[in-house]
Amino acid sequence: MSERTVEHSIDTVENAAGTPDEEQPFRELGLRDEEYLRIRDILGRRPTTAELAMYSVMWSEHCSYKSSKVHLRTFGDLPRSEALLVGMGENAGVVDVGEGYAVTFKVESHNHPSYVEPYQGAATGVGGIVRDILTMGARPVAVMDSLRFGRADAPDTARVLPGVVAGVGGYGNCLGLPNIGGEVLFDDCYAGNPLVNALCVGVMKHSDVRLAKAEGVGNKVVLFGARTGGDGIGGVSVLASETFDEHGPAKRPSVQVGDPFTEKLLIEACLEIFAADLVTGIQDLGGAGLSCATSELAAAGSGGMRIDLETVPLRDSTLTAAEILMSESQERMCAIVEPTKVEEFLAVCARWDVLATVIGEVTDGDRLLIDWHGERIVDVPPRTVAHDGPVYERPYHRPADLDELQADAPPAGSADLRADWLAVVGSPDGCDKSWLTEQYDRYVQGNTVLAQPDDAGVVRIDETSNRGIALALDGNARFARLDPYTGAQLNLAEAYRNVAVSGAVPLAVTNCLNFGSPEEPEVMWQFAEAVRGLADGCRALGLPVTGGNVSLYNQTGDVPINPTPVIGVLGVHADVRTRVRGGWRAAGETVLLLGETRPEFGGSAWAAVAHGHLGGLPPQLDLAAEQALAGLLATLAADGLVTSAHDLSDGGLAQALTESALRYGTGATLRVDGDATAALFAESVARAVVTSSDPAAVRAAAEAAGVPVTELGTTGGDALVVSSAGGGVLVELPLAELRTAWTRTLPDLFGHPEDVVGAVPTGAVPTS
Amino acid sequence: MPRVVVDVVLKPEISDPQGQAVLGALGRLGHRGVTGVRQGKHFVLDVEGTPDEAELREIAENLLANPVIEDVELHLEAVRPPTPSQG
Amino acid sequence: MPRVVVDVVLKPEISDPQGQAVLGALGRLGHRGVTGVRQGKHFVLDVEGTPDEAELREIAENLLANPVIEDVELHLEAVRPPTPSQG
Amino acid sequence: MRIGVVTFPGSLDDVDAARAVRLAGGEVVPLWHADAELPAVDAVVLPGGFSYGDYLRAGAIAARQPLMRAVVDRARAGMPVLGICNGFQVLCEAGLLPGALTRNSHLHFRNRDQALLVERADTAWTSSYAQGQTIVVPVKNGEGRYVAADADLDRIEGEGRVVVRYAGGNPNGSSRDIAGVTSADGRVVGLMPHPEHAVEELTGPSVDGLGFFSSVLEGVLS
Ligand SMILES: Nc1ncnc2c1ncn2[C@@H]1O[C@H](COP(=O)(O)OP(=O)(O)O)[C@@H](O)[C@H]1O
Ligand SMILES: [Mg+2]
């Protein structure tokens, strides 16, 4: 490794000043010539090897958001929300959910690492987002995961999916965090570019909010958690900002191995430390490790910081200073602690078997100084590392093929409703997901009110008042491919609807924007449009964007993934006991459809499954209708007027009826008006199906809310029977047949759980 | 029938939480003589006829191990006389 | 520093789904020469000074293995090529 | 009555176990793995989780912690002990219960609502059930496959040591569908399923799990 040979004769600041012409491997580290020159400008000399390492990781796409920043700013322009306590820019946003409680939540991607090493990539993705939440001062209370894989029957999917699922489960289960929902969808465009987006949500009291800030001259910098090893060195700039190619060792991704047990101890130690008020600032070590933590802490504070790098506990004694600064070893945190509290801080860590070391202190002055065995190897203004990274105004333009794609409207009529119905609900996207979700613990902590397969996850946050929160994650990429501006809003609308269906009041938004290479103007356009759409959607719904994450370069060669903006919406339940569940439990209840159906098939599951077609325009967005529906659902829940509710989205009414009937094995006899294909498979927005034993009251409430309502029929029997207005039977599906079609798909592909022999997730640590 | 033993160990630079946990337990149990523990996997393969070394190496390196994080040691059983425990 | 290797394998009468999974995968990949697979654990211990065989056996049999379901094999590093010790 | 709930590093369901004890009307005494002394408690619950990450073997390291020596002594003297999931694994590793728990036959972590057949309604932890009763509680484990040599299984069955058996499907390949076993004196019970997750309508598939905790309360009172 070229850095290492340079490193062996320690490259001090003096040395750097004296050897201006020394060749430096900045290109291998992913820096452009002009960026390297800017660093020399800032420092007034060439950077030392250690400084070069820091700038290169912190100015990488992943850490600096250099391509996305100019667009993400629009989220900041959204009208200030009453609920928002901490906005974008911190590790995660914080919102007020009432009764003095604050909730922090964020979704983050770990896409490339999960392709390289599915189990560890996914596991460390969960570990990373959990530390972001913990850093805010919150107790993590739940996780969710949004996954995308290549075609379900592709050989590589059989390698990636089982490992990713085992990794998400293995890490989250071992931390004692219930998994309350997520998504898994398949498309050729993700072959070679699987997406693993993990969400974590945490709860605290308002007064407990902590920030990543180094304040107070003389305060100590304490590094605690795992030892530092060679994990993921350069991983940030390599894994997250370059597509794969075989050239150059500097581009060979390195893998990090997660240790959920150590993270669990870290969580408990941190919560005890917060409770005893032992820190003035705290930051997790994620991408760019110590480079990121020290420069961000110092930049956020008023003074400077000095670190003795040789005091960092190492797992591998051969690491160079630059490697220690870049290492992405997992399960580490960095805290700023008043001298008088250091002893107590260390005692708490010892009690939890957490290694903790004072590695430096906050100084007056405004420099970040790092010494290595007494020699100065870093002397920089911290802001220039953490925040003054390059900002690109990347060129963008509308994809050349988009007009043609939008003009290519999907077929409008189904030749065989019954066959199409079975195909849609039996497709990898539409089928039963318990093959995955059974690998996740949804019960731990004993506060999970709703989890998969319900539309939203619901967690009780107060056992006395029964206050709770609801969360949903949605990211339909077909819609976004057809129209990223509308697609992003449709995803927002779906997550919003899912939260509302549970009876919760939507409150705030997070997001993870997964796109191809920003260097492709057409991809950059998709990104810009999606961000603009999300911002406009949030403005219309009056919801703040509290944070999120961007993952670019998700493409193979010059073929990018479909734009995949995954949107998370958080809602509040004043009393979780009034939550509405999915699934029909009893016969004799009236089934009602809320909302209006139009013949909209563009980007629909039906068009994809029955016709292998992607084209036309996505369904028409109607945020006002979404708000009316959400308001109605909240009323129905509060007044206990509905016995079940399920939103309509992918797969339309057919999908919703299937899931509602199979949940508890209750059929129904129903009647639909108008065009049958549209009635069953259209994906028109702002719709939900509910059941009630008091349909008149539901009608009245719907009319009051201005939401169209249609009575579909009655629950009961062991089949779904759907007739037309004229009374002729359109489809009759015995539940047994429907269940087989819906449940067999993933087991057939990835192994029947009952088989004694299953897949061996590579790298899996034992779990129980 | 010939037996082949394949030991799969994490690469030295990869952290080994399991080994660390065992080391910690040994310390608490007073076995201070042990100063390092690495935990790996141990496979015993029954092979029909004369094992084809190249094929076995392929199996060991790409199937039994995950080359991204693990190294393998291939032993033809004969090479390693075990000290079976009387337990 | 001396090294000690401990291999832990399931008793023959205890079924080994991991081994069977590997065997199945090998078959699907056309490696028909392998007719049986058992998967166990492989521990490498660094030991200070002269290892006390009795203590090591105690560690191997009562901590590293669960005598109810597992057998252990103890290998003193002596029988294998010496490896430089890690800091 | 005072019921100790042990927290090991990596215990996860200790909060849930404590909640279940409270809902059943007991007083919870939190116990810390590193303490050598066992305070005055009438019974002890070893909760689920991943003590020490389940590295090495599930429950192996926890079973060798200081507090466990005290728990083992008191259990041998008749104190009721309930081990749930990881707690069951600890009890087997500590030698208080026969057999061992190994990697699930399908090699996956499995979380589902599971029907159980109560075969012993006369242990310290199952007296408020009826023999032959079927209950539904969550099961969630990756190393929950109960195994023992056939001869031992025959003995365990012969002595009627099986407390609960999986009904309507075996979630992990356990020998003879065994979900939980008891000590010879019926005071120590271990099971892989999670009764503490079935104590509230709001959060559980049923409230069938409460019986384990009310049993020990009634038992000690009478
Ligand atoms: N798509 C996005 N929408 C809103 N905020 C974002 C988005 N992507 C990143 N951010 C915000 O930018 C900041 C830096 O993101 P990131 O580097 O992922 O934080 P961390 O390193 O703590 O995970 C965070 O506050 C994050 O919420
Ligand atoms: Mg962070």
From TrEMBL, chain A:
Residue numbers annotated as active site: H62, H110
GO terms of molecular function: phosphoribosylformylglycinamidine synthase activity
Primary location recorded for the protein, binned into one broad class: cytoplasm
Binding site for substrate: S109, H110, N111, H112, R131, Q256, E328, S329, Q330, S551
Residues annotated to bind ATP: Y65, K106, N511, G548
Domain PurM-like C-terminal: 217-368, 587-718
Enzyme class, spelled out: ligase
Stretches assigned to the Phosphoribosylformylglycinamidine synthase linker domain: 26-66
Chain positions recorded as Mg(2+) 2 binding sites: D132, D284
Catalytic activity of the protein: N(2)-formyl-N(1)-(5-phospho-beta-D-ribosyl)glycinamide + L-glutamine + ATP + H2O = 2-formamido-N(1)-(5-O-phospho-beta-D-ribosyl)acetamidine + L-glutamate + ADP + phosphate + H(+)
Bias type Basic and acidic residues, positions: 1-11
Amino-acid positions noted as binding Mg(2+) 1 in the UniProt annotation, renumbered to this chain: E108, N549
Pathway: Purine metabolism; IMP biosynthesis via de novo pathway; 5-amino-1-(5-phospho-D-ribosyl)imidazole from N(2)-formyl-N(1)-(5-phospho-D-ribosyl)glycinamide: step 1/2
Stretches the record annotates as Disordered: 1-23
EC number(s) stated in the UniProt entry for this protein: 6.3.5.3
Domain PurM-like N-terminal intervals: 89-204, 454-572
Oligomeric and partner information: Monomer. Part of the FGAM synthase complex composed of 1 PurL, 1 PurQ and 2 PurS subunits.
HAMAP family, A to Z: PurL_2
Functional description taken from the UniProt entry: Part of the phosphoribosylformylglycinamidine synthase complex involved in the purines biosynthetic pathway. Catalyzes the ATP-dependent conversion of formylglycinamide ribonucleotide (FGAR) and glutamine to yield formylglycinamidine ribonucleotide (FGAM) and glutamate. The FGAM synthase complex is composed of three subunits. PurQ produces an ammonia molecule by converting glutamine to glutamate. PurL transfers the ammonia molecule to FGAR to form FGAM in an ATP-dependent manner.
Protein name, as recorded: Phosphoribosylformylglycinamidine synthase subunit PurL
Organism: Klenkia sesuvii
Automatic annotation (TrEMBL), chains B, C:
Catalytic activity, as annotated: N(2)-formyl-N(1)-(5-phospho-beta-D-ribosyl)glycinamide + L-glutamine + ATP + H2O = 2-formamido-N(1)-(5-O-phospho-beta-D-ribosyl)acetamidine + L-glutamate + ADP + phosphate + H(+)
Keyword set includes Aminoacyl-tRNA synthetase: no
InterPro entries per record: PurS, PurS-like_sf
One matching Pfam family: PurS
Keywords recorded for this protein, A-Z: ATP-binding, Cytoplasm, Ligase, Nucleotide-binding, Purine biosynthesis
Enzyme Commission code(s) on record: 6.3.5.3
Subcellular location(s) of the protein: Cytoplasm
Molecular function GO labels: phosphoribosylformylglycinamidine synthase activity
Biological or metabolic pathway of the protein: Purine metabolism; IMP biosynthesis via de novo pathway; 5-amino-1-(5-phospho-D-ribosyl)imidazole from N(2)-formyl-N(1)-(5-phospho-D-ribosyl)glycinamide: step 1/2
Major localization listed first in the record, in broad terms: cytoplasm
Subunit composition and interactions: Part of the FGAM synthase complex composed of 1 PurL, 1 PurQ and 2 PurS subunits.
The family this protein is said to belong to: Belongs to the PurS family.
Protein function: Part of the phosphoribosylformylglycinamidine synthase complex involved in the purines biosynthetic pathway. Catalyzes the ATP-dependent conversion of formylglycinamide ribonucleotide (FGAR) and glutamine to yield formylglycinamidine ribonucleotide (FGAM) and glutamate. The FGAM synthase complex is composed of three subunits. PurQ produces an ammonia molecule by converting glutamine to glutamate. PurL transfers the ammonia molecule to FGAR to form FGAM in an ATP-dependent manner.
HAMAP family hit by this protein: PurS (MF_01926)
Protein name (database record): Phosphoribosylformylglycinamidine synthase subunit PurS
Gene name of the record: purS
UniProtKB/TrEMBL annotation, chain D:
Annotated keywords: ATP-binding, Cytoplasm, Glutamine amidotransferase, Hydrolase, Ligase, Nucleotide-binding, Purine biosynthesis
Keyword Hydrolase included in the entry's annotation: yes
Residues annotated as the enzyme's active site: C85, H194, E196
Catalytic activity as recorded in UniProt: N(2)-formyl-N(1)-(5-phospho-beta-D-ribosyl)glycinamide + L-glutamine + ATP + H2O = 2-formamido-N(1)-(5-O-phospho-beta-D-ribosyl)acetamidine + L-glutamate + ADP + phosphate + H(+); L-glutamine + H2O = L-glutamate + NH4(+)
Pfam families assigned to the protein according to its UniProt record, in alphabetical order: GATase_5
Cell location: Cytoplasm
Pathway: Purine metabolism; IMP biosynthesis via de novo pathway; 5-amino-1-(5-phospho-D-ribosyl)imidazole from N(2)-formyl-N(1)-(5-phospho-D-ribosyl)glycinamide: step 1/2
SUPFAM superfamilies: Class I glutamine amidotransferase-like
The UniProt record lists the keyword Coiled coil: no
EC number: 6.3.5.3, 3.5.1.2
InterPro entries on file: Class_I_gatase-like (IPR029062), PRibForGlyAmidine_synth_PurQ (IPR010075)
Function: Part of the phosphoribosylformylglycinamidine synthase complex involved in the purines biosynthetic pathway. Catalyzes the ATP-dependent conversion of formylglycinamide ribonucleotide (FGAR) and glutamine to yield formylglycinamidine ribonucleotide (FGAM) and glutamate. The FGAM synthase complex is composed of three subunits. PurQ produces an ammonia molecule by converting glutamine to glutamate. PurL transfers the ammonia molecule to FGAR to form FGAM in an ATP-dependent manner.
Subunit structure: Part of the FGAM synthase complex composed of 1 PurL, 1 PurQ and 2 PurS subunits.
UniProt name for this protein: Phosphoribosylformylglycinamidine synthase subunit PurQ
Organism in which the protein naturally occurs: Klenkia sesuvii
